[in-house]
Each structure stands twice: as C-alpha cells, then as structure tokens.
Amino acid sequence: MSAAREYGLDDDYEWPRPPVGGWTADDLDRLPNLPPHTELIDGSLVFVSPQTRFHSRVLRLLENELWAQAPEHLEAIREMTIKLDKRNRPEPDVLVVPVGADTGPRQTWFKSEDVVLAIEVVSEESEERDREVKPRKYAEAGIRHFWRVEENDGLPVVYVFELEPATKSYVPSGIFHDRLKLTVPFDIDIDLTAVGKRRA
To answer: Is 22 exposed, middle or buried (0-12, 13-18, 19+ CB in 10 A)?
Structure first.
C-alpha cells in the first residue's frame, strides 16, 4: 500500500513540499488536502497514523468526564491544535480550555495561554513525541497541567504533571491506574476502568 493511500489519499497525491525555513503555524489552515490531524513540529508537518480502538475509547472517556466535571467557565474538547509559536502547532488528544476562548465555529486552534490542561494518549508511532517532544514544548509555552496516558493490559494509566514555573518544566505529581482523583486544575474523579463501557 502506498503512503498516500494509507492516509486515505489517491496514489497520485502530491505531498506538500516545504518552503525554505519550513512551514509556519498559519500554513496548517492554508495547505490543501492535508491528512486529518496533521501537526506542525519545528516547522515540519507530522502526519498521524490511524488510531487504535484503545486510543479512541480513552479520548471519549476523558473528554466526556472532563466536560461533565469541569466548572462552567471551562470546557473539554478533542483534537484541536495549539499555536505555541510560529513553527509549532501540535494537536493534543484532549484539551481543557476556557469557554471564553471560543472564537467561533470555524476556529481551528487555541493560544497556549488559553490551555488549562493538555492530554496526550501515547500511540506506538508517537511515543517519542508524546513522551518527550510535545511535553517539553507545552511546558516551555507555560501550559500549567499535562497528562500522559499509557495503555496497560487494555486499561489507561494516567501520568499527571504540573508546571514548575521557575524552570518552565513539568514535575510529576502522580500515577493513576484504576481511578483518577485530583483537585487541580479542578475537582476531578474518573473511573479509568470504565473505558469502553456504556453509561448506565
């Protein structure tokens, strides 16, 4: 199978050729026919592989629970990019942002200062980006809270980090297996074993 077809594109699809100096964050909204969920990391386009069932179920669980538990001035949203700077526009799996950061139905990105929480669910093809590259960039951009979610025997394990402002780096504040219970950035209580289950 060709690379183009793997992304649902025709075999004769012509991949975008980067300009001198690389792509910019604004280019993501102008380039035609990019595969879904394309990210910009250090001026390079990053194409995301098809997601696993586990990944999709974890995203649904976290978005639904965070949406339900967030205070009224905050909302959870999936798969929107963050414009960190001119050369970086990553797409976390789930975000928590202020309701007031909504700029309308055609919005495609958030400013880093609007992001309360960024969550990455680690996939096999994105391990290095999700564990090292993107958390470092989120911390440098001042995003206060970051969660990394890993799979263990079909269940999510959530690694929770909080920004240390003086060093602009994340420090770990907990590892959660069956139940995620936190008081920051707001009161959160999620049954992680409920991934993939229908609500009663």
So the answer is: middle
User: Which of 186, 70, 170 has the alpha carbon at shortest distance from 120?
Assistant: 170
Dist. CA 18–CA 41, nearest whole Å: 13
Is residue 69 within 8 Å of residue 189, measured between CB atoms? Answer: yes
HSE-up of residue 150 (Cα within 13 Å, Cβ side): 11
3-state secondary structure of 87: coil
Residue 86 in tokens:
């001119």
Instruction: Please say if the pLDDT value at position 131 is more than 60.
Output: yes
Name the pTM for this structure. 0.90
Count of other CB atoms within 10 angstroms of residue 149: 25
Q: Which domains does the chain have, with CATH numbers?
A: 53-194 (3.90.1570.10)
Question: How far from chain centre, in Å, is Cα 171?
Answer: 19
**If pLDDT is split at 50, 70 and 90, which confidence band does 85 have?**
very high
Nearest to 134 by CA among 56, 69, 39, 62: 39
